Amino acid sequence: MKRIFKKFGSSALVATLLLGACETIELDLADNPNQLSLDQSSADLLLNSIQIDFATFVELMGQNGADLVRIGYLNGRNYQNITNLSPVQLNLEWNIAYQGDNAESLDSGLEVNGILADIRALAPEAEANELFRHTAIAQFIEAYTIVTLVDFFGDVPYTEAIQATAETPILNPNVDSGASIYAAAQALLTSAIANFERDVVNEPPNDFYYNGNWGNWVKACNTLRMKIYLQSRLVDADAVGNFTAIVNEGNFIDETSEDLEFQWGTNAILPDARHPRYADNYTPSGGSDYLPNWLMNLMDEGDDPRIRYYFFRQVNAVPGEEIPPDEENLACSLEPTPQHYTDGGFTFCTLPNGYWGRDHGQNAGIPPDGFLRAVYGVYPSGGIFDDSRFEGLSVGDGGGGAGVTPILLASWVDFMRAEIAMLADPSSGEAFVLAGLSKSVAKVQSFGSLDSSADLSFAPTAGAVTNHSNNVSTAFTSADDDGKWDVLAEQFLIALYGNGIDGYNFYRRTGFPTTLQANLEPEPGAYIRSLNYPADFVNNNSSVDPKPNQTIQVFWDTNPASPTFPIAN
């Protein structure tokens, strides 16, 4: 099912409600939020809108990527006909990135559109009033947004799209090459760093990511530059050297305190400021999303210390495992294991210990299992810590939705560095893998306190965390070269839970892990190498045609064509 993150009624209102989220997750609703006095400049309001729309864009694209690499659940047995990724379903993220069809007018008369449109609207006032840090935040967000559009769609409009104005619209903007957009993103980040380091008179009143820590913003810019170099290493002979040069300078995200993430709140109405995955699943009818069997099984079998934070089990057994099959709630529990699952050694349909999810590509109907299936836990969506209470969820449970959208984390940077190191010598990646694992586990464990009702005696002990790290180390050192890449890839994917953008890129770039659960359909067709263009784009733009299929590879993906690559369909 498509995750439709409800578009906020007023971006400025949400910004006001989320103000101070870095200090507290309690939102002061003593005043009527519909009677707020907006005394900020249009540049301030636009920057609020840009920041919030960016978080929603990352959530949407992160879920698309997660579904394709088994850290989300993909509903569809034919890769070329996935409902969630159809041209119509992709309109939302496209319009959030460019210029939404439902532009809003705020009390100030300011029109709020999509990210890139609002950035263009911000520019004149920011330039005229020397609002360099407003500009810098916008430049970072623009760079991340356009790179992500390329990573998922390939060639997309940019030059003509951002030149358009209300007075001189460009109704049919041509696409730019992915490589040229990557170069533009690097230029934006160079400029953003300079702007963050300039002296200013007026700071942005709301920085929803770093709360005015401009040094951390510079580190985020450099980390995004590293990510761009890593993603383009197959087509850029200088990419690895440029990546390494930034590492040697030492001014990038390497501590969890520097993580770039968006903090959601707990307010449920006017507007709903909770983490979107919480809002969609902690409902009167129970959970609405399924969680991926591959990921839950990998973590359960590996005694991963993050599992109780990632997933909340509403029941202690899944039909067909510890209890009899259930035709009504889990029809596949009565079905034989498909031969290709048996041959591949994949789990099918049911998992032990109450981890009730779905296999990759399963597209069965929705039974009345909203209070049976596993749901999102306390990390990253602010849900319930799994303390083996085994009870159905209620609205407002756990952290009340005060989770985060992770965007660039220090743990992820360690895995990026592992990949670079392993290009020369696969054995040299172990220290980076273990460092990334350590940072990820510590960060995730810190979220347990969000659930005030949790019995944290069920949290993993220091000894359990150490044993898990030692087991990962043993698996890495004892494996052959391909096996080492599998260990890196599996641990990277687990750490990426909450944002699958980099996981989808990693999988297409490397072909690892080779251990991913196959699609439930024995012949699902070629793997999706890029998404279809959204319907709004092709239907309203005479300059472009729909893609013939989703096997078109983005400019940096020079690996063999599907279905032989990636290995696991």
Give structural notes:
- It is built from 19 helices and eight strands.
- It has helices at residues 11-18, 42-68, 91-97, 115-128, 132-153, 159-163, 178-196, 214-231, 239-249, 276-281, 293-301, 307-310, 339-344, 410-424, 430-445, 462-478, 481-495, 501-510, 535-540, and strands at residues 104-105, 111-112, 156-157, 175-176, 260-263, 311-312, 375-376, 404-408.
- The strands form four sheets. Strands 1-2 form a two-stranded antiparallel ribbon. The protein has a two-stranded antiparallel ribbon with strand order 3-4.
- Strand 1 and strand 2 (111-112) form a beta hairpin.
- Helix 8 (214-231) packs antiparallel against helix 9 and helix 15 runs antiparallel to helix 16 (462-478).
